[in-house]
Design brief:
binds phosphoric acid mono(formamide)ester, Rossmann fold, four-stranded parallel beta sheet
Length: 306
């Protein structure tokens, strides 16, 4: 049986291209499973997984939980907002206490970049990064690239533009690593104040003009402005952001070509993306969410084999 090269899923940066191919092949099989009348398999029957979320989430937390249940794992859920973290307990103490209840895999979201890497060094259980601050969101990039592959076939040679708040986005960085490993060309587009200074050093070009970026690409992945992570005012107002970088039907109609629209969610409708695009045939946003379950099943299954 094919095996991935890592014991934890901390970031896309650590993965080989062959790991991505194995995860995708496994996800194709699990997508068939979850579309059957009986959506469960016994693959992780003796495994216990804790979903440990120190930050808010809708899609990622529910998608992991469903993936775990479809694989017949035992599941416990921890949310810091209703936990003893509020009484001063540390991350490591919290996780060590959870592990003493015989947990095998920790799926963790945390606001600090590197928190899952720290944990992986300190504990015996396997760690899956469900988003660490502005750093990486590896399963989001896996489900995004899986969805592109499903929609357009091979990713090699495809042109992908990521639009929006690149500086504060873990989705952007993980997508850039995944797309580059799979042979896509990647550009970013957004206000210069929201583009990291190192972007060209990692082989990504910057395009300031949204129309030029969309004319160039096959796929546009539109990101939310992460106001909760911004220390300073990086642009005058959301209204002005929307005017210059918002994607709407009028803009798409002016391109004279068809492009695929993606968004990791949550969408701020009327800011980065209008409803007439988000809900149109161009959009694969809900397919991304559907594929998230199969991709996370594949990741958990392959890690548990180690
Ligand atoms: N895409 C994503 O990470 O969404 P949530 O924050 O709702 O999990």
């Amino acid at each position: 049986m094919a095996s991935i090269s890592v014991n934890h899923l901390l970031g896309i940066k650590d993965l080989q291209k062959s790991d991505l191919d194995i995860i995708f092949d496994t996800a194709v099989e699990f997508k068939q499973v979850i579309n059957r009348p009986i959506k469960k398999v016994p693959s992780l029957r003796d495994i216990t997984i804790a979903n440990v979320f120190f930050e808010n989430s809708t899609r990622t937390r529910l998608s992991f939980e469903l993936a775990e249940k479809r694989l017949s794992a035992d599941v416990i859920n921890f949310s810091s907002s209703s936990s003893s973290v509020k009484k001063g307990e540390t991350l490591l103490d919290t996780v060590k206490n959870i592990l003493s209840m015989k947990v095998d895999i920790i799926v963790m979201r945390h606001s600090s970049p590197g928190a899952p890497h720290f944990l992986a060094k300190k504990i015996d259980a396997q760690v899956v990064n469900a988003g660490d601050g502005t750093h990486e969101h590896p399963t989001q990039a896996l489900l995004d690239t899986f969805s592109i592959k499903e929609k357009l076939g091979d990713i090699e040679g495809k042109k992908v533009v990521i639009v929006g708040d690149i500086s504060h986005s873990r989705v952007a960085l993980s997508n850039i690593f995944a797309l580059q490993k799979l042979g896509a060309e990647v550009k970013v587009c957004g206000p210069p104040t929201l583009i990291p200074k190192y972007i060209e050093e990692i082989g990504v070009k910057y395009e300031a003009d949204i129309k030029k970026a969309l004319v160039w690409c096959d796929i546009a992945n539109i990101l939310r402005i992460q106001l909760e992570r911004q220390q300073a005012a990086n642009f005058p107002s959301l209204r002005e952001y929307s005017l210059y970088y918002g994607v709407n039907k009028r803009l798409l109609d002016s391109l004279d070509k068809e492009i695929v629209i993606m968004h990791p969610g949550p969408i701020n409708r009327g800011v980065e993306l209008d409803s007439d695009v988000a809900d149109s045939d161009h959009s694969i946003i809900l397919e991304q969410v559907e594929n998230g379950v199969a991709v996370r099943m594949a990741v958990l299954y392959l890690l548990a084999q180690k």
